Amino acid sequence: MNPAFTLPTISVLASDVADRIAAGEVVERPASVVKELVENALDAGATAVDVDIREGGRALIRVSDDGHGMDRENAMRAVARHATSKIRDAEDLVGVTSFGFRGEALPAIGSVSHLMIESATDDGGGVTVEVSGGMLAPPRDTARQRGTTVSVASLFYNTPARQKFLRGARSEWRAISDTLTTLSLVRRDVRFTVHHDGKAQLRLPVATSLRVRLAALFGTEVAERLVDVDDVSGAIRVSGLVERPVDVGTSGRRVFVMVNGRAVRDIGIVRAAEAAYRTTISAGLRPSILLEVELPGPDVDVNVHPAKAEVRFRDRWTLERAVERAVRRALGTEDATATVGHVRHVLPMETSFGRPLGVEALRHASVLDAVATAYQEGDGALPATVDRESAASAQLLVPILTQFHRTYITFERPDALVLIDQHSAHERVLYERFMQGFESGQSSSQRLLFPLTLHLVPVEAEAFDEHRRLFAQLGYEAEAFGGSSIVVQAVPAPHPRFDAERCLRDTLAAMTGDRSASTLSKHERLAATVACKAAIRSGDLLAPEEMRALYIALARTTLPAHDVHGRATILQLGWDELDRRFGRR
C-alpha cells in the first residue's frame, strides 16, 4: 500500500446535500420539471392542464390543473422525501399504471428552486405550501377552486454549477415543447394550453383520436399522410399511425411509442415497425411511426429508468413480431396507396386493394387464384376443376379496366379515379410469389424445348454460382458448361411474353453491383431483382383478360400499394381534386 495514501473517512451527507444529489437524478433541465409536474396533474385526474413558461423554464414554470387537489395534510406530505400516493408496497412497482411513483420529484425540485404549491379539494378552502432551497415554510390557507397550481421559480438558483450547464432559453423551450407534445399525444382526453413568455404556443382541445390530436399539433396535411394501425396478436394490441410509404422522406420524421399509456423510448419497437417497410421504401429512408402498445401489466416492467422513459418486457421477441405484423398489415390496406386530392374511401370491400375481399369474393377465392395463376404461368388455361362460368362469375368482382399509354390500368370508383402502374404492380405480384416459393420450397417452371447456353463474364458466373440454389428455387434449372458458361434447361414462366434469357442476364448484372446500401437478405434481394426484370413492362399492350388477372393477383398480395423499390403501384385521384382543377369547386 502506498504509505502516502490515507483512507478517506466515511460520513453521512447533510440532508441538504443529499437532497441536491437526489434532485440531479430527477431534475436534469427545465423540461424534466415540466414532465414531472404535468404527469402529476394527469395522475390527479385533470381534464384541463395550463402551462406557463418564462425564459425557457429558467425563470418560471407554472402548471395548473383542475384535478382532485390536496388538503393541508396531503400538501405537506407531497414535499416530504419518499412520500407518494401511487404505491403502497414493493408489489405495486410491477405493472404500475400511473405516470410517476418515486415520490422524489417535488422535494427534489424544491431543493434547487423556489417551489410553491397551491391546492384545494372539493371540500372547500385551500392551502399554499412553499419550499425554497429545501427549506419548508409554514403552510397557509388559500381561497381557490378545486385543483392544483405548482410554480417553480429560479431553477438551480442555489446550484450555480448546474445552472451554468443549462442551454439558452430557446433550446430549453424546444425541449419543453417536445415534452408537452409527447404528453398531449398520450392524453388526448385532456385539454392543454401552453404559453411561453406571455405568448400562446399551444391550444389543444380534447381530441377524439390520435390523428385528430396530431392534426392539431402539426397540421392536417401531416395527419393525412399517415395510415391507421390496429391489430391484435394474442394478448398484445398494437394501434396508432404510420407514414404512407410513398410519403416517407418528404418531411421531418416523427417517432412516438406508448406502452400501456406511458410514452417510452424503445429502439426495439421502432426497429420492428421499420422492418415492416421492407421492399416498400428505398434503403436509408426512415418513416414516421406513432404506435400505442397494450399488453398485460405483469408482462412489462416500467421501473428500469429514473424518468420512466424505458421499459423492460417479459417476452420482447413476441412483442416485436406483433408490432411488425401490425404495421405490415396496415401498409397493405387501401389507405396506404398514393392519393392526389381527398379520397373518402367509400368503396365496397369487394374491390378494395389490400383489405379482405369480402364474403362473396372469399367464396370465389380459389377461382380468383386460378384466373390469376393461369395468366402468371403464361398458358391462359384454367385448371380442370374450374369451369369458365365460375371464372366469369368470380371476375364480376373486378371493375371495368382500361389501359392507357400502354402503362397504366385504370378504373373508376365512387370516390376516385384509380390508376395502376402495370410494371410496378406485376413486380409486387412476382416478388411475393417468389418469396412464397422460397418459404414453401416449391416453384413453378417451364422446361425449354431448346436449352439456352449463356456465356457469362467471370463476375456474372460468380454471382450465379453464389446464388445457384436460390435460382433453382425460383424455377431456373441450370448447370455449368465449361469456363464461365451455363446451360439453362428450365425457367420461370411469369407471363406469356417473358424473355427468360434477358431476365437472367439482367438479374446477374444487377447482382454484381454494390450491395452495401441494401438492407435485404439474399432471398429478398434476388426475389426483388428477378421480379423487376421478369415483370411486364411499360409499353406492353395487355388484353382485357390479362388486365383482370393482374388486378386479381395484385389485390391478393399483402402489400399491393408498393413495388419492391418503394414506388407506388396504385394512385388514387379524388373526384374532388378533378372538380377543383376544372373549376367546378
Looking at CATH, the homologous superfamily of the domain at 15-204 is Histidine kinase-like ATPase, C-terminal domain
| Poorly predicted spans | 345-365
How many beta-strand segments?
24
Could you estimate the helical fraction of the residues in percent? 25-40%
CATH level-1 class of the domain at 15-204: Alpha Beta
- The backbone outline, from C-alpha atoms, is elongated
- On the 0 to 100 scale, the average pLDDT is 83
The CA-CA distance between the termini, in Å, is: 90 Å
Please describe the biggest sheet, giving its number of strands, its sense, and whether it closes into a barrel.
9 strands, mixed
What does this structure look like?
This protein has 585 residues and is an alpha+beta fold. Among the domains are: 15-204, 2-Layer Sandwich (Heat Shock Protein 90); 210-331, Ribosomal Protein S5, domain 2 (2-Layer Sandwich), CATH 3.30.230.10; 445-491 and 498-534, 2-Layer Sandwich (Ribosomal Protein S8, Chain: A, domain 1). It is built from 20 helices and 24 strands. The strands form five sheets. Strands 1, 2, 3, 4, 5, 6, 7, 8 and 9 form a nine-stranded mixed β-sheet that branches. Strand 19 (408-412) and strand 20 form a beta hairpin. The longest helix is centred in the C-terminal third of the chain and has 19 residues, at 422-440. The N and C termini lie far apart (90 Å). Mean pLDDT is 83; it is low at 345-365.
Topology readout:
Blueprint: H1 15-26, H2 30-43, E1 48-54, E2 60-65, H3 72-78, H4 105-110, E3 114-120, E4 127-132, E5 135-136, E6 140-141, E7 147-153, H5 160-164, H6 169-186, E8 191-196, E9 199-204, H7 210-218, H8 220-224, E10 226-233, E11 236-243, E12 255-259, E13 262-264, H9 267-275, E14 289-294, E15 300-301, E16 312-313, H10 316-331, E17 338-340, H11 359-363, H12 365-376, H13 388-394, E18 402-404, E19 408-412, E20 416-421, H14 422-440, E21 446-455, H15 458-466, H16 468-474, E22 477-480, E23 485-491, H17 500-511, H18 522-534, H19 544-555, E24 570-574, H20 575-581
Parallel strand pairs: 1-8, 12-14, 17-24
Antiparallel strand pairs: 1-2, 2-7, 3-4, 3-7, 4-5, 4-6, 8-9, 10-11, 11-14, 12-13, 15-16, 18-19, 19-20, 20-24, 21-23, 22-23
Helix pairs in contact: 2-6, 9-10, 12-19, 14-18, 14-19, 15-17, 17-18
